[in-house]
Design goal:
Length: 175
């Protein structure tokens, strides 16, 4: 399988995107920024991430009678790894039939002795935010289905919102 594995070293310098200075290291958390769906800027806690990989869609083995958001399984490190289409799970459309869509990026997580890859469009940077600055998701901001998978959002220095994906809720919905 032709996959590129990018381990994210803990010593890697994180990019600071918070407008206000931090007061305590206990309030700070590092996140991986990424893009899903129609350009939704999202974050996921870095402490949960095992690796990022490139997923060739042609190498995904579909599994019948599963959740529609499960694309199937891939062989990663000699083990079957579930691949979840995060945008589709959150209520977005899925169009993987276009010839220009032959790969996706995968965020690998370990869940109950299984490895799960969240298929996304593009991996961004590592960012640090003050947890005290996390804002709640308002009812008018997103669809009800999308809000199920978001735990809040931050405003970066460019005054753009960065939603935080609730990994536990994502896992609960596919199990």
């Amino acid at each position: 399988m032709n996959q590129i594995i990018n381990k994210l070293p803990p010593s890697q310098t994180s990019q600071q995107l918070l407008a206000q200075p931090k007061t305590s290291s206990e309030e700070e958390q590092r996140f991986l920024g990424f893009t899903i769906g129609d350009g939704l800027n999202a974050l996921i806690p870095l402490m949960n991430l095992q690796a990022t990989i490139k997923i060739l869609l042609s190498e995904i083995l579909p599994v019948p009678q599963m959740n529609d958001s499960l694309l199937g399984i891939i062989n990663y490190g000699g083990k079957a790894t579930w691949v979840v289409d995060l945008a589709h799970l959150m209520g977005g459309s899925r169009d993987l039939s276009k010839p220009e869509v032959s790969t996706r990026m995968g965020l690998l997580f370990r869940v109950q002795n299984e490895t799960v890859a969240l298929a996304i469009d593009r991996v961004g940077t590592i960012e640090t935010y003050d947890l005290q600055q996390c804002l709640p998701i308002g009812e008018a901001m997103f669809t009800e289905r999308m809000r199920l998978f978001l735990s809040g959002y931050f405003i970066d220095t460019e005054q753009k919102s960065r939603v935080v994906v609730d990994l536990q809720q994502v896992i609960r919905s596919i199990m």
